[in-house]
Every structure is written in structure tokens, then in C-alpha cells.
Amino acid sequence: MNKAIGLDVGTKTIGVALSDAMGWTAQGLETLRINEQEGYLGLDRLQEIIDEHHVNVAVIGLPKNMNNTVGPRGEASIHFSEVLKAACPHLEIVMWDERLSTVAAERSLLEADVSRKKRKAVIDKMAAVFILQGYLNSKS
Question: Which CATH topology does 3-139 take?
């Protein structure tokens, strides 16, 4: 089975999730601090994770508008995927419709009664889990 990484790309953070060895479940790994405006996209750390965990597939959340068009955030995710592909040519890149992943992550954290401060700290990582889990479910 190919090991997969799920990425929820924002302007200031990237939520990172990894699949288990069997490709059944996604677990949140970490939230990377980035600065999209300054062009710092956390690629060094991402490459470390990809190499360390022998990742073959990167599933990147593609935020679409509800009418299925791609807006500025979606274009930023596509640009990020191109930069990642250039840095890791061996990596298969999958763009995954993530329209409801952050909403689902927020809802599950609210249901678990996680405080606002803690939610803010883990929301991107949780969104990455939802993105990757959706992809894994589609493969099985």
C-alpha cells in the first residue's frame, strides 16, 4: 500500500495528516507554521516527513466554492501542489475537494467539547485528517 500524507494548506499554517501502513486510517501529525505572503511554505519540514514516513502520495485539500468553481484559496492550493511536485518529483499529487473538511473538523471538536483556544491549535491538523480520510475511503 502507498503511504499517503494529507495537507490542509492555509495562508499561515499547513495541517498535516498521515495514513497508517495499510492505508485505512488517517492520523493528525502536526501543524506547520508557514508564511504564504513571504513565500515560506514549510517545504523543508514536509520533505523530512515525506522521506521519514516513505510517503508516495500527497493529498492536498482543494477548497472549492459551493458552485464548484475554484477561487483564490483554491488557486493557492494548486500553486502549492506545483511547488511540492517540483520539490518532490517522485510524489503522486492528488487534489481533493475539501469544501466541508474544516466545517466537519470544527463540528467534531465542538462535539468533543474542546475549548476555543485548543480548537484553534488543532483545527488545521483535523481538517487534514478529514481530507486524507475522505481520499482513503474512496480508495477502499
Answer: Nucleotidyltransferase; domain 5 (3.30.420)
User: Residues near 17 by Cβ (< 8 Å), separated by ≥ 6?
Assistant: 5, 6, 7, 26, 27, 28, 29, 125, 128, 129, 131, 132, 133
Strand 55-62 and strand 26-33: pairing?
Answer: unpaired
What nine digits make up the cell of 44? Answer: 523543508
Q: What's the farthest any 2 CA atoms get from each other in the chain? A: 41
β-strand pairing of 3-9 with 55-62: parallel
Q: What pLDDT sits at residue 80?
A: 96
Task: Tell me the whole-structure pTM to 2 decimals.
Answer: 0.89
DSSP state letter for 70: B
Extract the C-alpha cell encoding 23. 492505508
Q: Which residues contact 59 (CB under 8 A, 6 or more apart)?
A: 4, 5, 6, 7, 94, 96, 131, 132, 135
At 114-127, the pLDDT tens digits run: 787 777 777 789 88
